[in-house]
Automatic annotation (TrEMBL):
Pfam family, one: MBA1
Cellular component aspect of the GO annotation: mitochondrial inner membrane
GO biological process: protein insertion into mitochondrial inner membrane from matrix
Subcellular localization(s) per the UniProt record: Mitochondrion
Lineage summary: Eukaryota, Fungi, Dikarya, Ascomycota, Pezizomycotina
Native species: Aspergillus nomiae NRRL (strain ATCC 15546 / NRRL 13137 / CBS 260.88 / M93)
Record's keyword terms, sorted: Mitochondrion, Transit peptide
Protein name, as recorded: Mitochondrial inner membrane protein Mba1
Amino acid sequence: MASSLSKGPVFTAVRSNNAVFQLYSCQCRFLSQSSQRSAMRGIPENISIKQPAQPSMATRGMGLSRSELPQDIGLLPGTYVRPLWRDMPSIFQQPRERLQLEWLWLKSGFQNFLGLVAYCKWFNSGLPLRLKERRQAARELHQRMYSAFAKGDISTLRKVCCTGLANNLSSRISNRPRDEKVSWSLDKYNRTPATLLTGIRVLSDRATQIPEIPDSGVRQVVVRITSRQSTGKSKVVKTGKSEVSVESTAPPKQQDCTEYIVLQKLRWYGEDEDWRIWGHATPTTVEDLANPMFVSGLTFAERMEAMKEQFQGKK
């Protein structure tokens, strides 16, 4: 189940739901007059009608309740997700790329920690760092999400997942055959060196203010979870008015899974929301080194401009 959720179009809808943070520019519309009207004195050939100015994000946000505020803002640009050791480029065959990835790991870790301290102690004075609760929250939400998905519990999914992910999982539940029953269990955490022998390792912890909205921000934590999970499917057959029997359609399947879960905690107008699962991330690769957010020697403004051009080119 874990592998099926981390692939395909499940998270495409999540990442694309960022329209609330786009700025809308005012445009002018020109209405051409007919040849008969243009002959009339005192009436210009083109009339410029200016649309009313759009309200700022802060103004639009003030009119919304907390339940109406957005949850999906996308993965923060420049998030470095360290790959497994076996997936890293060889130091002998690709020494330059390997050193670049290792340097990014050290640099991003240092910058992320400074940014987190500034977010908690400077921009939001007195906000706790919550370093200890990250792994605990990841463990709890990870199990609740998969258990709810197996049971078809949409209400719980909307509590533990961001809107885009919850909607996608709910759609998958609705598409199941009505007589199909899904089971899921987490058998154990694989305490490998990849997770520092804990089964759950924090790879990234970033926080930033949300522009134009006072006392508001977002914190995203990427964790690597290595576990052994079992999934199964069965068919529910009614034998009477109140009697049912369950027939197994496939033997339970057990597999080892490595997942990169993104946790998110939003802060709106000085009030923190609960941790939620935003979705799955993918490890940073050698190809990602060409990303403007990872290229060395660029200023922040140059990185933003390069990303803007890259995005417009893809469109």
